[in-house]
Amino acid sequence: MEYKDELKKKEAGDSDALESVLAHVGEMGRYQRFLFVAMLPFGVFFAFVYFGQMFITATPQRHWCRVPELQHLDMGMRRNLTVPRLEGGWSQCAMYNANWSLVLETMTPPDPSTETVRCRDGWEFELGDIPYRTVVSERGWVCEYSGFAPLAQTIFFVGSLTGGVFFGWIADRYGRVPALVGTNLIACVGGLGTVYTTGLWDFIFCRFLVGMSFDNCFMMMYILVLEYVGPKHRTWVANMSIALYFGGGCLMLPWLAYFIADWRHFLWVTSLPMALTVFAPLVIPESARWLASRGKVNQAVKILRRFEKINGTKIPQDVLDDFIVSSSQTRRTGESIVDVFKSVPLRNTMIFMVVIFMACAVIFDGLVRMSEGLGLDFFVTFTLTSATEIPSVTLVAIVLDRWGRRKLTIVPICMAGVLAIVAAFVSKGIPQVVLAIAARFSVNMSYNAVVQWSTELLPTGARASGSSLIHVSGYVSTMLSPFLVYSERVWKPLPLLIMGVTALTVSSFGFLLPETMGRPMPQTIDEGERFVRSHAICGQAVDDEDDIKHEKQKALIT
């Protein structure tokens, strides 16, 4: 028993040493509160990066073929003379193959039996539902070119995968702050570059650049701040930053687009402010955990002294000495995401997290796409959808440290699954929409619980790159949601049934992961392995006897 106690002490290592330093410097002091406020611009930038493309590539629902000979007539007359009538509306992609001089003379539309052809001179758009010209309406990305905008969105997500891996590696190799600055700068360059594009491929390239910043433009700051906040306040900081800053950015975005009413000016307004992140290193400290994990103990101590000064606290010298000694002895490592995948327990943890996150992402995005049945305009619908973010994440912030990460992942995603299955068999309209929004509210809770859970499970050396990989895998999975929604053409209830069954199946993976509530974050691969091995399905930590024997043998040898 005595040896077990000693081993548990050793297992905590630098995690306990740094937690001890934070306890004395202040778990949520003046400096931590400043860092929480400093997350504001990055949360808003995240919303701009994620959803901005929706507002520059929005497609007006009413459009028809343009006929140059009739441009002097008013819009209603032009449409009546040129566009074949279809059941329930007008043709959007075909026009009469008529003698327009004759049509102008008689001012009567061609006979309905007249041959129709594809639009020859582009399209006209009625700027009603979308009250400004977008990339789609300006460049005619409709009808046979309607796949261009979805292609650009897909390439955006390809960029997010590339950027997630690259900037995650940068964060673990060179620090959180350089990665934070780099992601926001590349989003700024890509966004402003989009303004000057003239065709498809230069547009796609610029959206790829913006995609590289996706997730990491906020998550680097998110990880850094969580590493400085004490365990008691971590849940509040993690979730309220998403609810207030990202949620607020989502609510702001549609009305910025609406009132600016010009897609180029909109990109200037949402991209240029990201250039201000070059000044971030002046006010945002590097992660002391990361510095300690790279053997840069003196720099870590210097930052902790700054916390002392700003918070008006004092770290006892013996506590600081413990941190310095333990860091100097054990932390000169180059651990990275590669080492996580070499470790069987941590590799399994990563795989389970990726599966859960991907499921949450595709279900949430699928439900967003299916909620267009609300019958409201684009801007109001987006606002209502975004409004679910704040209450759901606030609820997670309130109960996460009472119920734990595992329960807040498993229970809401199960609820979302049940609600989706019920929604599949109720009548379309208000009943189905209400159930779908409730399911989205529930899955959003799981989504945000998993974000914090994954951050707390990964060791410091691989926390940024591992978190990036998990988050990016989730967002890449959203590329499947359009096909999921399209399956409605095979059988009406099929999309909601797939989402429901997926949610219920994936919830079981949560039982295979350890609870992190109230426990220090692991610093090294070894600590991460011991953390995972101590997990029992019932949720209680257990001692790994083999681990203890192995450590005892090592101790006897040395």
From TrEMBL:
Annotated SUPFAM superfamilies: MFS general substrate transporter
Q: Which PROSITE patterns match?
A: MFS
Main subcellular location: membrane
Q: How does it sit in the membrane?
A: Multi-pass membrane protein
InterPro entries per the record?
Answer: MFS_dom, MFS_sugar_transport-like, MFS_trans_sf
Name the domain of life this protein comes from. Eukaryota
* Keyword hit for Isomerase: no
Q: Where is the Major facilitator superfamily (MFS) profile domain?
A: 36-517
Q: Which UniProt keywords apply?
A: Membrane, Transmembrane, Transmembrane helix
Q: Which Pfam families is this protein grouped with? A: Sugar_tr
Where does the record place it? Membrane
Transmembrane segments annotated in the record for this chain: 34-56, 151-170, 177-196, 208-230, 242-260, 266-284, 350-367, 379-400, 407-426, 494-513
Which PANTHER family does the entry mention?
A: SOLUTE CARRIER FAMILY 22 MEMBER
Q: What is this protein called?
A: Major facilitator superfamily (MFS) profile domain-containing protein
What organism does the UniProt record list as the source? Iphiclides podalirius (scarce swallowtail)
